[in-house]
Structure formats: structure tokens, C-alpha cells
Design goal:
The protein contains two helices and five strands. By secondary structure, it is an alpha+beta fold. The protein is rod-shaped, with a radius of gyration of 27 Å. InterPro entries: Preprotein_translocase_YajC (IPR003849). Its main location: membrane.
């Protein structure tokens, strides 16, 4: 019985290190597969919105297509039809219209 007790005690001590290593590995996996790509994507979106200029054709988050007529601090004046202009927040610009348009061939 004493040999069995000694072996069980040795296994219990090693389990602490293996659980710590497993936790570190899980945090590393989450960082490289979830957190890092998300922050990278957010940087790309911020760079895209800063590069917007007058005359660009864009799509809003609500699906409205238009052409940028004026850019202020955080407000964009978007022309959605002839002489129809709306003011929207800069953060609601989703993509350029050239990226999201597709051609339908019948």
C-alpha cells in the first residue's frame, strides 16, 4: 500500500504543472486564432475609413449606396440620388461600392 500511495502523490504533484501549461496553451491559441485577427481587421477598417475622399462610391451599414459629396470630422454627406443628400456617421460606411457590386448576367 505504501508504494501505491507514493506513486499517487507523485502524480498529484505533476498535475499542477501540466494544468498551468495547458492554460497557457489555451490562452495562446485564443490569441493567435481569435484576438489577433480581429484587431488586424479593425485596423484595416479604420485605415479604410480614414482614406475616404470626396467622390468615392460607398455602401453604408444599412445597405444604402451613394457617392461622397462632403466629409467633415465624423459626418459624411452622401448623395444617394440626384439632389438627394443624407448625412451619416463616418463609422457607418461599410465598403466601397466597387467592392460590393456584382454583375448579373441573364
Amino acid at each position: 500500500m505504501t508504494l501505491l500511495t507514493i506513486l499517487l502523490q507523485q502524480q498529484g504533484q505533476g498535475a499542477g504543472w501540466s494544468s498551468i501549461i495547458m492554460m497557457v496553451a489555451l490562452v495562446a491559441i485564443f490569441y493567435f486564432f481569435m484576438i489577433r485577427p480581429q484587431t488586424k481587421r479593425q485596423k484595416e477598417i479604420r485605415k479604410f475609413r480614414e482614406a475616404l475622399s470626396v467622390g468615392d462610391k460607398v455602401v453604408t451599414a444599412g445597405g444604402i449606396y451613394g457617392k461622397i459629396k462632403e466629409i467633415k470630422d465624423n459626418i459624411i454627406v452622401l448623395e444617394i440620388a440626384d439632389n438627394v443628400r443624407i448625412r451619416i456617421d463616418k463609422s457607418s460606411i461599410y465598403a466601397t461600392a466597387a467592392d460590393s457590386t456584382t454583375t448579373n448576367q441573364a
